[in-house]
């Protein structure tokens, strides 16, 4: 995979990870309720779930491109519509949201279990990956290139939530994030809309 293409993949994966939602709320809750360690565990277990979804998506998309190119095109356009919907939803989001998650007592075992369940139990995650990875998967893609895609999605997701957990262990960080959560929503919304337009324009090259 060319480095410039990988940068595009990494940027989109980072955007998806940083977008406020139930995953961020989960890491916030476990960090505030149990400290840095449960928050980190929740983030890492969530990343494992993301990696599993990415693996299944890449594997399935590769076969679909070869066997059903017309169906793959339909899925790609549906994915673009989904990304656009996410972008509009993020733009309309106000200040209130997952950044206001309360502190509830928690353990590392609970954090590990819930981190994986939130990832695997979120149907929007698989739709996001289908819309995203359709721009990077080709019929002749090597196994190594597919592994790079899966590892990129998993590592970026895990790194972001570990950073969130570590940052939230300092009491001054949470108020700063709460005050600026609406800007995170707005920036994410613009980027998602731009990505939807790029999907309509055609596969990245």
TrEMBL record:
Domain of life: Bacteria
Protein localization: Cell membrane
Segments crossing the lipid bilayer: 41-66, 117-137, 143-162, 183-201
Keywords: Cell membrane, Membrane, Transmembrane, Transmembrane helix
InterPro entries cross-referenced by the UniProt entry: LeuE-type
Keyword Metal-binding: no
Main location: membrane
Membrane topology note: Multi-pass membrane protein
Keyword field contains Membrane: yes
Family matches, as PANTHER family: AMINO ACID EFFLUX PERMEASE RHTB FAMILY (PTHR30086:SF16), ARGININE EXPORTER PROTEIN ARGO (PTHR30086)
Stated name of the protein: LysE family translocator
């Amino acid at each position: 995979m060319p480095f410039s293409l990988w940068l595009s993949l990494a940027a989109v994966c980072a955007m998806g990870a940083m977008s406020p939602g139930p995953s961020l709320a989960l890491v916030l809750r476990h960090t505030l309720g149990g400290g840095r360690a449960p928050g980190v565990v929740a983030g890492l277990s969530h990343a494992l779930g993301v990696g599993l979804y990415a693996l299944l998506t890449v594997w399935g998309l590769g076969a679909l491109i070869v066997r059903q190119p017309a169906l793959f095109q339909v899925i790609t356009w549906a994915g673009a519509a989904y990304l656009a919907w996410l972008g509009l939803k993020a733009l309309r989001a106000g200040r209130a949201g997952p950044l206001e998650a309360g502190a509830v007592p928690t353990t590392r075992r609970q954090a590990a279990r819930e981190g994986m369940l939130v990832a695997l139990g979120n149907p929007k995650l698989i739709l996001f990956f289908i819309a995203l990875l359709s721009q990077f998967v080709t019929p002749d893609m090597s196994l190594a290139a597919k592994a790079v895609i899966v590892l990129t999605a998993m590592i970026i997701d895990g790194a972001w939530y570990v950073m969130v957990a570590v940052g939230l262990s300092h009491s001054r960080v949470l108020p700063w994030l709460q005050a600026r959560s609406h800007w995170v929503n707005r920036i994410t919304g613009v980027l998602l809309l731009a990505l939807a337009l790029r999907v309509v324009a055609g596969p990245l090259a």
